[in-house]
Amino acid sequence: MGEQQHPLLIVSVRLLLFAETSPHGPSVFRRLANLTRAGVHLLLTAAEPDQWFPTRGNTDDVLSAQSRLLKLIQEAGGDFDGVYYVPRSMFTQDRKRAAALTDILGRYKVEAADATLLSSSKPFLKAAEKLGFQVTTITDGEAGTEDLAGELERFGETIL
What we know:
Blueprint: E1 8-12, H1 13-20, H2 25-37, E2 41-47, H3 61-75, E3 82-86, H4 93-108, E4 115-119, H5 122-131, E5 134-137, H6 142-159
Helix pairs in contact: 1-2, 1-3, 1-6, 2-6, 4-5
């Protein structure tokens, strides 16, 4: 890690949705909470939905998932900064990914070397790695949740 006092950890919402129902989930959410209490900025990322649904009288699945994840992290004693929805585009997706990651660095005023991305999206990880982020590929599903818990443990050991 660079000289940044409060590193940035970016985790895919998709991975945490798998953790929500996994036996390893409580460990994942506890570790995330420990990191945020130690000053790590936690930002979740997700692909921008094709369509946002009005919340008045309807349930927006994207926003309800975000609320559930926030509740799980808060119940473990932590918090997250928010969810960054990465715009999608059929013809300019690579540029959208790079632009989103650059925007995130600017918002947090951190160098790429002080940002870590945990995701299952190989194209998103590739874009982050090109910019100088620390990246780790986490597999989707049950096995991935166990890997995510282990990776969060290792990340905590390097910064705490």
